[in-house]
Amino acid sequence: MKVALDTTVFGQGLNSRSGDVRLFKSFLDRTQAELCIPTVVLEEAANLVRKSIEEANVKLAAAQRLTGDEKRYRKLDVKAGLETYRTSLDALLKHLNARVLPYPSVSHEDLVRKALVPNKPFMSSGKGYQDALIWFSVLELAQSCDEEISFISANWRDWCHSKEELQLHGDLLGDMNIKGIGASRIRLFSSLSDFVQQCTVDTLPLLSSLGEVATRPPDYQQLLIDGKELVETLLVGALPKFLHAFSRADACVEDIEVLGASAPTEIRSSPIRVIDAERRLLQFSAKYKVSLQFLIRRFDSAFWSEQLSFHLQQEWDETRLRVQATTAIRVFFHMIERGENTEDFSVVSISLADSVARLMVNVFDGTRRPISADVDLLITITNGFQEQVHRDFHKGPSVAFTLPFHDNLGDNYTVVASADGYDQAGFTPVKINPRAIQHVDLMLLPKNATFNFRDARWDVLQKTNPDLVTLLAYGAASDAAARDRYTQLMETQMPVLACLLNLTTAMSQISLRAGTPLTYIRELIWDDTMAQDRFFCFADIALIDQILCAKDQFIFKPVPARPHPGAIRRFEQVVFGEANVQLTLHENDTRVIDGVTCFKLEPSIDYFKDPGAHLLLEVLVNSPQGAMVDPRVFYVLRWIAGRHAGVPEFNAPYTLQPLSLR
What we know:
Elements: E1 2-5, H1 7-11, H2 19-31, E2 34-38, H3 39-67, H4 78-95, E3 99-101, H5 108-116, H6 129-143, E4 149-152, H7 156-159, H8 170-178, E5 186-189, H9 192-200, H10 220-226, H11 228-247, E6 253-261, E7 265-269, E8 273-274, E9 279-297, H12 301-307, E10 310-315, E11 320-338, E12 341-352, E13 356-364, E14 376-382, E15 388-395, E16 398-404, E17 412-418, E18 422-423, E19 425-431, E20 438-443, E21 445-446, E22 449-452, H13 458-464, H14 466-473, H15 479-492, H16 494-508, E23 521-524, E24 537-540, H17 542-552, E25 556-559, E26 569-573, E27 580-593, E28 596-606, E29 615-617, H18 618-621, H19 631-645, E30 655-658
């Protein structure tokens, strides 16, 4: 993995004393990931420092005028301040083994063209030159390697459609497509803290998994009471970000004061994780009732009135009001312990304590019908901070939950369902919101599941899917020979038939500019190359142009064809995080079928997880990399992924059921 930073990360505070930086350093060392920083980012970071010093000098000059004391309020030396910053920055980059990326080779012509349209990251005002240089630096980094790029930036306006969904803007995806970079190669994070929480913390081993036991279990209540002054200081630093997001109107706040805070209550902790031989990470949260005082802009008062109940509102100046409010919050903490000492104590995030959202968990079995109400379902729910918020047995098939809403990463829940006689299944992240009930549909696969081809019998398919029967029959000497060939496959090679039905069903649901991939297949190749993870066929050569158009529409992405002998190109569907169809083009192997020039096509399936995957299947976790693909697992993955994505249901003409019911 490569990790690239935007200037906003430096603006949020990046120094070697930060707990996030310590955890980030641990991640880089353990994973051999490389930190890459565009040159323009370092220049902008230095400029931020220069501006901060100049703004401080303006305030110092005002103090000199008011007091006449030039010695006490002496101005700062801008040049000396910048030199000190650059020295500390160089030391930090060396500490993190960072690589500085040169300015990109993009032409002025290309930049002007993007600015005039405008295309992201340019704004309608024409602003965005430095951001464009950062973006093209990241693109050139992606072109230079095959690794995933994690791009950390707090400036969602430059890169995304909205701050609720951190997905790259279509303009940027277009740039990636032009340069042959897959849409899933670059992943966006809103802060170093978010990256640490999602990618670093979860990869740290649990203390219990190493066979160790904490010699003295932490007394979190006492830790927070003893550190009351430090906690209040940390809250003052973290509350502006919380209040800014809480307002939902980009309303800023100034001069925050914590007038009072209750004792911590309702403390929750996560399992202790091990950073290295000497350091451990403690994660816990607590509820506080805090009384706050801060300044808001007059024209933001309507937004704030909808969110908080003010018990004091004063005129401050022509543009601002001073307000006071009391609210209950939940504060999430990280503490890094080194032996008996605390190396770092920080606030990860803050959320409203009592906000809730609803989640409905719906469980199905291998027949794609709701699971029996007699089955005892063990449902485990974990929030985005890896705190287990629920684990208990329920009667299905649907179970409703009311969960805490944090308005941050904590709302990225993981839901796992299991039952006796079934392999467990789960999904992450399940993002909840108070404005709507979130549904997650899971399918539990019986541990001894076998295929039920009742709906795939030849006589049934002739009525329900005559186009598929026509394809299956092509090349046979007679209708009877076609039926016998198909029936023999069903009786002797059930996994192979299941794969064939999986792929033909999945391809029939991929919308191209004209038709679907299945529309273009003219003849199946009935030999020993037909397997439980692929088959070979001949397809109309017009399909190639359709696939290339689908690539431009981000339906497919090009992937290396090296593992497939004789292949020229290979494309993978990118709609789902897993269980996507792959189409391998053997363009040098052609034949004419019914007057149509055709080429050999190899549709295949691969369910092993990539960085964008979301599904958690017990059988998938236990399968070694490189093991033969099981069409039953693809069936479950594809169905769950489709339900989550809101696309037509994956309805292959067979079901899975326990062997005893066959």
